[in-house]
């Protein structure tokens, strides 16, 4: 299988540049919720129309991610990230001047979704997987994930400051300009995965077909659906749930902030532990603890204390799945096809996100409460924990053998 190759620039600079790209890309995406009220009020859009544009963005992001990863594997991460910065900036700029629902759906949903995929931390981690030694990949993946969370913290107040100072349209223009910083930063991540003796340069579908034949990979992909379900449902519906329980909207916004804060620590801890303990068992533990956290949150009366405690617990478990999942994909198949094959796993994650957002709204409209979705989140967490236990943490030797 492929091993780490020596980058054309010093490895610390590769990691720093990649983390800044991840922070800018994920931070921008995380700031879109700030535009809900000014955009819908100014353009006369309903919450459903704006929400559908954001849901389509998540789905397009997931659908485009495997192709973005495949492009990075074949043509080089630096080129792909630079292209992603251009597309991402074009989508955000288009949002600023979208006059109606259809245009907003195309710019905020489709174009921006494609841009996020091409300039995402998934492509960054593919670059890291190529140049970082195997024994250190999980930890470095954790650093990249933590950088993404830090970007969310930076861009939330920055985006709100832009809105307050310039209005929502010019705020989006300024954010689009910041996205263009990805282009020069991408130069540090130039290069592509190379084949070694025993590996063939497989077409997209052939490589995917052979990887999908590996049972542990299938289980990993299926389990990642649950991660997306949890994250999207809580991120979108948690503030409204707390208001329904009698708390203020400010408490809802701070719970999301607390999740992001603890997510930095959780991602770093996950990456560090993934270099020392079986990754599949750590993933099983994370999903099990999520189920316990949700159950405990529902068991006690909702208050500010329980809301913040739940947010802190979920924050530690939030994106801590990402470095472990990426680490397993890299371990299974090596870095040669990591961008594409991690992209397939991430597609499952985003389908889960779409279902979590949609089902939360559907169940609330149907029953007037979120209880059924909370209970489903517990069941799915336990099921995902069980799915990860039989995963084998070893290289799929038949993948390289068949490819030869």
Automatic annotation (TrEMBL):
<feature type="transmembrane region" description="Helical">
    <location>
        <begin position="171"/>
        <end position="190"/>
    </location>
</feature>
<dbReference type="InterPro" id="IPR020846">
    <property type="entry name" value="MFS_dom"/>
</dbReference>
<feature type="transmembrane region" description="Helical">
    <location>
        <begin position="104"/>
        <end position="127"/>
    </location>
</feature>
<keyword id="KW-0472">Membrane</keyword>
<feature type="domain" description="Major facilitator superfamily (MFS) profile">
    <location>
        <begin position="11"/>
        <end position="395"/>
    </location>
</feature>
<dbReference type="InterPro" id="IPR036259">
    <property type="entry name" value="MFS_trans_sf"/>
</dbReference>
<feature type="transmembrane region" description="Helical">
    <location>
        <begin position="340"/>
        <end position="360"/>
    </location>
</feature>
<protein>
    <submittedName>
        <fullName>MFS transporter</fullName>
    </submittedName>
</protein>
<feature type="transmembrane region" description="Helical">
    <location>
        <begin position="372"/>
        <end position="391"/>
    </location>
</feature>
<keyword id="KW-0812">Transmembrane</keyword>
<feature type="transmembrane region" description="Helical">
    <location>
        <begin position="80"/>
        <end position="98"/>
    </location>
</feature>
<feature type="transmembrane region" description="Helical">
    <location>
        <begin position="12"/>
        <end position="30"/>
    </location>
</feature>
<dbReference type="InterPro" id="IPR050327">
    <property type="entry name" value="Proton-linked_MCT"/>
</dbReference>
<feature type="transmembrane region" description="Helical">
    <location>
        <begin position="308"/>
        <end position="333"/>
    </location>
</feature>
<feature type="transmembrane region" description="Helical">
    <location>
        <begin position="211"/>
        <end position="234"/>
    </location>
</feature>
<feature type="transmembrane region" description="Helical">
    <location>
        <begin position="281"/>
        <end position="302"/>
    </location>
</feature>
<feature type="transmembrane region" description="Helical">
    <location>
        <begin position="139"/>
        <end position="159"/>
    </location>
</feature>
<dbReference type="GO" id="GO:0022857">
    <property type="term" value="F:transmembrane transporter activity"/>
</dbReference>
<keyword id="KW-1133">Transmembrane helix</keyword>
<feature type="transmembrane region" description="Helical">
    <location>
        <begin position="254"/>
        <end position="274"/>
    </location>
</feature>
<dbReference type="Pfam" id="PF07690">
    <property type="entry name" value="MFS_1"/>
</dbReference>
<dbReference type="InterPro" id="IPR011701">
    <property type="entry name" value="MFS"/>
</dbReference>
<feature type="transmembrane region" description="Helical">
    <location>
        <begin position="50"/>
        <end position="68"/>
    </location>
</feature>
